[in-house]
Amino acid sequence: xxxxxxxxYKVVKAAVQLALVGVLVALAAMGEMGWLRELARGMRxxxxxxxxxxxxxxxxxxxxxxxxxxxxxxxxxxAALAAVEGYSLWRGYHWGAWLVVIASGLPLPLEVHxxxxxxxxxRVALALANAAVVAYLARRIARQxxxxxxx
Length: 151
Prior knowledge:
The chain has one domain (about 1-150). It starts with a helix and ends with a helix. By secondary structure, the chain is an all-alpha fold. Helix 6 (about 110-120) packs antiparallel against helix 7 (about 120-150). It is built from seven helices and no strands.
């Protein structure tokens, strides 16, 4: 059941990020740079993840089409990573759990630093959720290794 929840989270995350890329492309094509800056301010105030806060900062700093394209590329790459994580877990690839543990565990120190600076409950909840995913999958990997050694 736990793996299915993680897969669902990764699929939803990838879909939301792809939708955000579409919004960014459409707004930039329409010349709505002011609206993009407002979106960035809103993300900084209401979105919990460290990655999204950084994205908001980057969008706010966008003064050129190149900066916007880099933001879109970063979102696309993160969406692709989330999709690969979800797919690898869904298919049961042995490396899938490792990929999720690494990709979810690496940003945790940044999340803790951000929590200490902002004191936002939403950031604490997100960090706890990511830590739970890492702990769950790490325990699962350890159990599978023990079972393989016994066999």
